[in-house]
């Protein structure tokens, strides 16, 4: 037994003393074995993961239990004697490599830091090993790759560089904490492949943390489901996928089955929104969008899909007027929209609204929900006093939040899903014709995201608003979209109804996107690699 | 892409330099106007009430005061640009000559204080960040705040009383006299330098601590801890390089103050620096000297802030190594 965590309890510092967030969890791991931890955010997965390194994040403390590594209880050691284990015998791969690499140092310098601290290799040996690992990870120009700074490298490459860095001291155990969550599907495949290969080649034990069932199915020998700081159940991967015992596990498994009932859309001459021949770019840079044209029919949802950098968000900026296009135009209900935000009338501003990916940063943390929602009501609808209060309550009921409970609260007192609902209500308050949803569910857990998708569908049925739905998640597209626009390198490469585009992909890029979406089948990644992906 | 490398930085430095020059120009106008608009007639003030109107008029002509303002400004700034600051009204010596010795003394004292204060403040700030919330952090905070809360002349007299009068370790009068040795200068300027160190340390130490602590929440700091880096290494190697910009800015402001703001300390310790010269010249209505001092102080502030900006950019790899 390499790792044996027994009855581990962790507490978090709150306003009134310490509250437990891990209520006595066990975890056993043999050499060369991979265990997957799955559950929604707040389940305690990451806390348990880093606890295996004898580490508690600032604001957390160990309140009981044992963390035995090869029989040594890390929790009984003083901090200075825990450090020799970290990075040396147990290493960590973080969710966002972009944030977890130090921006001030070259990648190679950060790679050799661990070996030099722990004295496992000389600088020259360590650098040679780094080049070897960079090559194994299929990183470009492995001999010089390490000389770059983190900001000079793409997200997927950075994540692979972080996996390489974790192996710098040849550890026995690596904790992977959502290593692909921030990546889009095509990039994710290559990182997953790199991780699985290195785990095998170096006979590593691993703890793989994720909220994506399909991903964990590829990586883990065993899966442990967690919720609210407790273990729900644990079983070998295939058994867990085929026959989960607990209701909660089954609900996690069922999330991806949400499909909006098919609808018949009214045929109309003039679409809600038409972008024609839009070419746009930033400052003196090259064109980010090239000749982008598409339509959003009234009352419909059009999903815009593509990997990061494909121009999805830039398209949104052109439509909202934040980025005037170099060529082409945007028409709303047949009327041309002025290219610059400053030239648009209040009525035109009202008719196009936006919901953002990060509800956290899109809501003013110092304003109450009432203040946040009152602003568009006064500005666009010129409501005040009782009429505004009545509309506020109506809006809150539309987004299924109790007005009396929530109107007086600050965004910080709300959960991620609730904050996103406020973002939706703020857009709705203007009674717009057209809403741009920019990755609105990608920061949310699957259960919560599903609730948001159901809400958006219902609101569309009730109000007839049209959505442009920017996403890189094809499951979301299938769940909600009537039509799909596929973008790559700033161009529209394919478009049509959802079933036309996704069921029989006509464009090779669409096919690649589709094939990159992990399936809850443990053999999926193996097949993908065999097919030549990554 | 590679052809454009380094360009953003160079362009930025060039732009800052131009802005700095423009600021200096605006300041020269302001200084000139402020001095010209002082109440009373300078010639009258210098010559005294007993002077006859003819003598005053002749003196005015000699000073060029009868010419229009713009012409006087142009001839003054023209002289400054060629290194001629005019002659002192008090003793008729060239202002440049007067300034040269004084500027050297001021720079010596400022360097003396900065060489002690900057590393000291940064070290204390880093240690306070390392042991934040502990007794060291709290003690350092209380002591540095106390030091900054007292007026500098008070600190100066306290130091003078204990270290000079009671213990007799250092002289209370810092005037180095004619051609002193370096060792002499260091001993004699010790008390004013120590006073200045006590005054500027708090600000730099607190900014160092705040900037470093601010970075400690970043994911790459957690990553460093999980790689097994010691707390001191986390602070100095992982946090400090990413917290340099605000620290450098505060250091620059304080060093500028050490050069341009030490009038009181110079007066208390009878140290022959620029500040003292400026105070004396204001009392004597020695206008050319006052203008020259004001311009030098302004240039010091602008140069040091420019240097801070450039250093802050140069320590940011995103700007130094573009994609």
Helix content range of the residues of chain B, please? over 70%
Helix content of chain A: 25-40%
Into which percentage range does the β-strand content of chain B fall?
Answer: under 5%
The number of helices of chain A is 23
Q: Which blocks of ≥5 consecutive residues of chain A have pLDDT under 50? A: none
- Main sheet makeup of chain A: 6 strands, mixed
Please state the CA-atom Rg of chain A, rounded to the nearest Å: 25 Å
Shape of chain B: globular
| Backbone structural class of chain A | alpha/beta
Can you tag this structure with a few keywords?
heterodimer, A: 534 residues, alpha/beta, six-stranded mixed β-sheet, 23 helices, globular, B: 323 residues, mainly alpha, MetI-like fold, 16 helices, 75% helix, disordered N terminus
Task: Provide a descriptive summary of the structure in words.
- The complex is a heterodimer of chains A (534) and B (323).
- By secondary structure, chain A is α/β, with parallel strands linked by helices.
- A six-stranded mixed β-sheet of chain A has the order 6-7-8-3-9-10, sandwiched between helices. Chain A has a six-stranded mixed β-sheet with strand order 16-17-18-13-19-20, sandwiched between helices.
- Chain A starts with a strand and ends with a helix.
- Chain B is mostly helical and 323 residues long.
- Chain B has a domain at 102-316: MetI-like fold.
- The longest helix of chain B has 36 residues, at 95-130.
- Chain B is globular, with a radius of gyration of 24 Å.
- In chain B, 35% of the residues are buried.
- Chains A and B meet through helix 4 of A and helix 10 of B.
Please summarize what this structure is:
The complex is a heterodimer of chains A (534) and B (323). With 534 residues, chain A is α/β, with parallel strands linked by helices.
Fold topology:
The complex is a heterodimer of chains A (about 525) and B (about 325).
Chain A: E1 3-14, E2 17-29, E3 34-38, H1 45-51, E4 60-69, E5 72-73, H2 79-82, E6 90-93, H3 97-100, H4 107-118, H5 123-136, H6 142-145, H7 155-166, E7 173-177, H8 185-201, E8 205-210, H9 213-219, E9 222-227, E10 230-236, H10 237-242, H11 247-254, E11 273-281, E12 287-296, E13 301-305, H12 312-320, E14 327-332, E15 335-336, H13 346-351, E16 352-355, H14 359-362, H15 369-381, H16 385-398, H17 403-406, H18 416-429, E17 434-438, H19 446-463, E18 466-471, H20 474-480, E19 483-488, E20 491-497, H21 498-503, H22 508-516, H23 524-530
Parallel strand pairs in A: 3-8, 3-9, 6-7, 7-8, 13-18, 13-19, 16-17, 17-18
Antiparallel strand pairs in A: 1-2, 1-4, 4-5, 9-10, 11-12, 11-14, 14-15, 19-20
Chain B: H1 7-36, H2 42-47, H3 53-63, H4 69-81, H5 95-130, H6 135-149, H7 152-166, H8 182-188, H9 190-215, H10 219-226, H11 231-239, H12 244-260, H13 263-268, H14 274-283, H15 287-314, H16 317-320
Helix pairs in contact in B: 1-15, 5-6, 5-9, 5-11, 5-12, 5-15, 6-9, 7-9, 9-12, 10-11, 12-15, 14-15
